[in-house]
Structures are given as structure tokens and as C-alpha cells.
Amino acid sequence: MKDKILTIIQQHPGIRKREISSDLHVWQCNSEFLRAMHDLENAGLIYAFTYKDPANMEFFDKWYLTNEGKRAILTVD
Predict the structure, then answer these.
(1) Domain containing 36: what range?
(2) What is the DSSP string of 24-55?
(3) Distance (Å, rounded) from C-alpha 71 to C-alpha 65?
(4) Which helix (H) or strand (E) holds 63?
(5) Residue 23, domain CATH
(6) Beta carbons within 8 Å of 28's beta carbon, 6+ residues apart
(7) Are 3 and 76 in contact (CB under 8 A)?
(8) How high is the pLDDT of residue 76?
(9) pLDDT tens, position by position, 10-69
(10) Quick one: pLDDT at residue 74?
């Protein structure tokens, strides 16, 4: 699952977590999915930028690959 998450983020920088889970056909609160996201973030392969638009009451994270994450993708491919 981690490799798929990295690939999805590579193809769609700034993607939301719910969109990643949708691409994987899992619920965004699935424990395996959340664990994989947590592990990738702790490993320094992905990071989130929090998008805030208080006027429209929107707050969510946009996910990106770190440089290390980009290198991990190249290694896997």
C-alpha cells in the first residue's frame, strides 16, 4: 500500500487524503491506510501542507513527496 500511496502522490501533488484513499478503494479512516500514511510521514517520504480558508470554512491537508520520497519512487521504478 505504501508504494501505491507514493505513486498516487507523485502523480497528483497536493492531493487530499480522502482522494488518495478513494484511488486505493479504501475508506479514509481505514486503519491500514492511516498506518501507511503515518509511517510514510515519519520516514520523511511525504509531508502535508495545511490548506486553510476560514471564509469558506475549509481546512484540510494537501500531501506532497519530500525529496527523499521522490528518490524512493525512482528506486522502486
Answers:
(1) 2-76
(2) HTS-TT-HHHHHHHHHHHHTTSEEEEEEEEGG
(3) 9
(4) strand 58-65
(5) 1.10.10.10
(6) 17, 18, 21, 22
(7) yes
(8) 55
(9) 999 999 999 999 999 999 999 999 999 999 999 999 999 999 999 989 899 999 999 999
(10) 76
Residues making up the chain, counted from first to last: 77
The confidence score (pLDDT) of residue 4 equals 95
Cell numbers representing residue 44 in the block: 520523511
Phi, psi torsion values for 60, nearest 5 degrees = -160, 165
What domain count does the chain have?
1
CA–CA distance, 47 with 68 (Å, rounded to integer): 11
- pLDDT value at residue 77: 52
Please check whether residue 46 is in contact with residue 35, taking contact to mean a CB–CB distance below 8 angstroms.
no
- Helix and strand numbers (H, E) in the chain are 4, 2
Pair 69, 45: CB distance under 8 Å: yes
Read off the amino acid at residue 75: T
